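Quick one: structure tokens for this chain, please?
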Amino acid sequence: MKFNIADPATGGQKKIEIDDEKFIRPIYERKMGQEIDGKILGDAFAGYVFRLTGGNDKQGFQMKQGIMSNTRVRILFRKRGTNYKPSRTGERKRKSVRGCIYGPDLAAIQLRIVKKGEAEINGVTDIQRPNRLGAKRRMNIVKTFSLDLKKDDVRQYVVKREIKRKDKTFYKSPKIQRLITETRLRRRKLHRTDVKDRYKNTKEATEKYEKLLS
């Protein structure tokens, strides 16, 4: 069976083939999105943690998240998503997709490195392939690089582009969407305080008006 291993930190990607059934069988009955210990695939991957991100069966049908089946099924697609791109508004189409549960009918399995081990993987972790464009939204950056929201600074993982013009070199990076900063927290606190003050003033004004009428 073929395994496609990708490392989002370096941009490296490599295809390996494993034919020994004892290394493949522990992946069966697992679901897309789960994490596995790299030692399952052999001692060369000891210390690594991989995330199962997809695959395709022997006929080339891709796996789809959310389809709780280890076989191929035909589902009716109603809107744009994975494995389907409508050509016009309101179009529906029935297509065959592979379920998200892994089984022996697969021909290729896709893995993403979540935690790096001690040994290097040739062509994956020992190279640097810079991305020209990267994720802009905060949570997408966190998912791509498997960051810790409390410890890691998301702004340090934005993909930057180096631009050279004559004798000047500068870098461009996208603005992070939905980034929670100190300014955002301060404005949120002021907004909530303003709402409470308006509610309190309205309540006092109503009580004064009712007292005046009585």
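The first strand starts at residue 2 and ends at 7.
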